Structure formats: C-alpha cells, structure tokens
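Incident log, support desk, overnight shift.

02:14 A customer reports that sequence design results differ from what the structure should imply. Their input is reproduced verbatim below. On-call engineer (initials T.W.) acknowledged and began investigating.
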C-alpha cells in the first residue's frame, strides 16, 4: 500500500500492524532500566514502560501491558522512534508528535509512522489512548535529563 496520509486504510494498516505485532513489547527488567507504569483512569490501558539509557543515548525502549489498538500501536511506534537516539533528540520526537496530536505546528517530515495518528484530534476521546505511552516515555526522559 502506497504512503498517503489522507488514506484512512493506509493509516489504519500502520496502527493494526503495530498493535497485532508490536516489535517493542516485552520488558527486559534489567537493573539499569528507567521504568514507569501508565494506567488510564477511564479505560483498560495499563502500560509498563522501560528505557535503557547509556551515555545519553537510548539503547532500548520497551513496554508491556494491555491497551486498545491506539495505545499499544502509538507506544510501539514511539519506542521504535526513540531507540538509538539521544535524550535531546528523543524529547524533540515526542514534542513533535504531541504537537500533531494537539493540532499545533509540527514537522511532518520527522513524524514517520506516527502519522497514523494524524486524525486523533478529530476524536478527542482517543487522545489519552494516543498519548499514554508517549507521556510515560517523556516523563522518564525528563527525569533522566534532570539528573545530568
């Protein structure tokens, strides 16, 4: 299927691929991880996140738990985007994604598969789903950065 952000079938396929076969699901539980639990007060979403950071670079971004297609897919895609990036670059990726979600100015060229969530602002009840994992990763990164 050819990339087209205006094609709902293309966007849905990205989400379903990351929901049904998430590449970053499963925690390492290594002692050097930064971890957090993100649970929704209004739905089933309950996600555990972990980051392994070495020398200011994300070596591993993982998650586990239960959630809807939007929360699992968005968390998996963000984990994919963060791995191998510096803390500053990772925070910029998250900021760019959140800008898209909250209908602010963002750089579409740097959004990659997260473009699948471009229509989330039209469904305000899904914003929490699309940001639950992202918010957790952001919290971990900001916590790490504050200790530098």
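02:41 Re-run completed on a clean worker. Output:
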């Amino acid at each position: 299927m050819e990339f087209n952000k205006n094609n709902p079938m293309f966007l849905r396929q990205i989400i379903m691929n990351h929901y049904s076969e998430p590449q970053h699901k499963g925690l390492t539980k290594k002692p050097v991880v930064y971890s957090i639990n993100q649970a929704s007060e209004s739905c089933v979403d309950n996600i555990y996140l972990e980051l392994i950071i070495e020398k200011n670079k994300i070596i591993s971004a993982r998650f586990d738990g239960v959630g809807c297609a939007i929360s699992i897919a968005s968390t998996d895609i963000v984990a994919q985007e963060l791995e191998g990036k510096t803390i500053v670059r990772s925070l910029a990726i998250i900021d760019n994604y959140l800008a898209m979600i909250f209908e602010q100015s963002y750089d579409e060229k740097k959004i990659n598969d997260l473009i699948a969530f471009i229509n989330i602002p039209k469904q305000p009840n899904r914003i929490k789903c699309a940001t639950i994992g992202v918010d957790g990763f952001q919290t971990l990164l900001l916590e790490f950065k504050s200790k530098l």
